[in-house]
Specification:
The complex is a heterodimer of chains A (about 240) and B (about 270). With about 240 residues, chain A is of the alpha+beta class. Chain A contains 8 helices and 10 strands. Chain A has one domain: Aminohydrolase, N-terminal nucleophile (Ntn) domain (Glutamine Phosphoribosylpyrophosphate, subunit 1, domain 1, 4-Layer Sandwich). In chain B, strand 2 and strand 3 (about 60-65) form a beta hairpin. Chain B is globular, with a radius of gyration of 20 Å. Classes of the chains: A alpha+beta (about 240), B alpha+beta (about 270). Chain B: One of its GO terms (cellular component) is proteasome core complex, beta-subunit complex.
Chain lengths: ~240, ~270
């Protein structure tokens, strides 16, 4: 009969957290910026089809870093949650706060109960009628939830990227400025000149939540994914 | 064990909102209610019924129009009801039959299409959308047998083929592609008669709107359950056009003008029909 060794709960949690952090740190960063025109979500992602950014509902978007299969299952669960809620109550009743709290509970449950924690970090963004009504939530692998203002940076070089973006962020940014700022942040500092060219539109995944989607596009769905041509045009 | 987990994951992976509801929240489906078995079939339920929908193709797209009346027996249940809805960017549907179930079914269908788009990252093909709608109508068959039938009409722009297409359904979910034009609902025979005379190939969008308004006028003329243009309350039919740029609701102003033209022409002619 095998003997179970005693592991203190502190040690167990620390090991799990270290494991998850290592997994997340390997990935590339994702930036979510609230600005004048709405919310811009920018990821360094060479794949045109395996998205890190997704639409959840009319005004709500999702961004993630870490293991694709894990955050993809969370994204799909989020879309289901939002659609069921919107279908059974009303479209207005789907909020980022509700969704973020469901995510926090699932991540927390996986962190404590499962064999291995999810190696993911999520951001849930909701665009409001004014910038003050924008909501950005950051969720980490253990189910911690943080209500952020102005921007969220996640992934490998989060600290470096967020210091660059923190310096450049102003509430009056438009989408082009916000995406430019995000790209500046995503390119490692010091070698910005050479690297800026090495990050073409094809290596970026960009989506926006339009604050004025009803007025400009006649659609209540604020989420819009930008293709390579859109990105090039936006940055031109 | 490994394999059964994989099977489970695969079985749970669905892009369909309806399948998800069926599994997790069956009480939310509009057709998942069974009436008391052996309920007196002699006394049909008095519930609002939606009436006439017409759809036709025109040069570059398809159009769908519906009148604004719902009836409950001999009573007008609503003068304002809307029976034509955008299903997604490139398709619209119109409903005839039991209004309560039909409106819920429409909402479910709209969510179904959006859900697929969000999960899969692409739009469902037009055929795929038409088939999903057929499956939903089939789901309603038990209620249809008890007198609560819903019969939709579906029109959309096939972005891969570059043409507008029309689909009609029967209560069993049977799906039939229609050419040129089609009508459903209590006033459909009269509207069909009008369309046969008024429709011609390569109508412009504006001409198609005029034809739709006039055929609904004819349906309202002979069918008491179909509402004509109401100049007192300023109520006009609801019309959507779908072309390569997507679905668009024809503005009230254009509809008012088209309706007034029909009324004026008929008043001047001063004939019985």
């Amino acid at each position: 009969m095998t003997q179970q060794f005693y592991v203190s709960p502190e040690q167990l949690m620390k090991d799990r957290a270290d494991f998850a952090r290592k997994g997340i740190a390997r990935g590339r960063s994702v930036v979510v910026i609230s600005c004048e025109d709405g919310i811009a979500l920018v990821a360094e992602n060479p794949s045109p089809s395996l998205h890190k950014i997704g639409e959840i509902y009319d005004k709500i978007a999702f961004a993630a870093v870490g293991k694709y299969n894990e955050f993809e299952s969370l994204r799909q669960a989020g879309v289901r949650y939002a659609d069921v809620r919107g279908y059974s109550y009303d479209r207005e009743d789907v909020t980022a706060r509700g969704l973020a709290s469901v995510y926090a509970q699932s991540l927390g449950a996986v962190f404590t109960a499962e064999q291995k924690p999810f190696e993911v970090e999520l951001a849930v963004a909701e665009v409001g009628a004014t910038q003050a009504e924008d909501h950005l939530y950051r969720l980490t692998f253990d189910g911690s939830i943080a209500d952020e203002h102005s921007f969220v940076v996640m992934g490998g070089q989060a600290d470096k990227v967020s210091s660059v973006i923190g310096q450049g962020w102003r509430s009056s940014l438009d989408f082009a400025d916000a995406v430019r700022l995000a790209i500046t942040g995503l390119v490692p500092r010091g070698e910005a000149e050479e690297q800026a060219k090495a990050l073409p539109a094809g290596a970026l995944e960009v989506a926006v939540l339009d604050r004025q989607s009803e007025a400009t596009r006649g659609s209540r769905r604020a989420f819009r994914r930008l293709n390579d041509a859109d990105i090039t045009a936006l940055l031109a | 064990m490994q394999e059964s987990t994989a099977n489970q994951v695969a079985a749970n992976a669905t892009s369909s909102f309806t399948e998800h509801l069926q599994r997790d929240r069956p009480e939310l489906l509009p057709y998942n209610r069974s009436l008391q078995a052996g309920a007196p079939a002699a006394a049909p339920l008095q519930v609002p019924h939606a009436t006439t929908i017409v759809a036709m193709s025109y040069d570059g797209g398809v159009l769908m129009a519906g009148d604004r009346r719902a009836t409950m027996g001999n009573v007008i249940a609503s003068r304002h009801i809307e029976k034509v809805f955008p299903a997604d960017r490139y398709s619209v549907l119109g409903i005839a039959g039991t209004a309560g179930i039909a409106i819920d079914l429409t909402r479910l269908f709209q969510v179904e299409l959006e859900h697929y788009e969000k999960i899969e990252g692409t739009l469902l093909s037009l055929e795929g959308k038409a088939n999903r709608l057929g499956a939903m109508i089939r789901g309603n068959l038990p209620l249809a047998m008890q007198g609560l039938a819903v019969v939709p009409l579906f029109a959309g722009f096939d972005t891969s083929a570059g043409v507008g297409r029309l689909f009609s359904y029967d209560v069993t979910g049977g799906r039939y592609e229609e050419r040129e034009h089609h009508t459903v609902g209590s006033g459909s025979v009269f509207a069909r008669g009008a369309l046969k005379k008024l429709w011609r190939p390569n109508l412009t969008a504006a001409e198609a709107v005029a034809v739709a308004v006039e055929s609904l006028y004819d349906a309202a003329d002979d069918d008491s359950a179909t509402g004509g243009p109401d100049t007192v309350r300023q109520l006009w039919p609801v019309i959507y056009t779908v072309d390569s740029s997507g679905a668009r609701r024809v503005p009230e102003g254009e509809l008012a003008a088209a309706s007034r033209n029909v009324i004026e022409a008929r008043t001047i002619a001063g004939r019985e029909a």
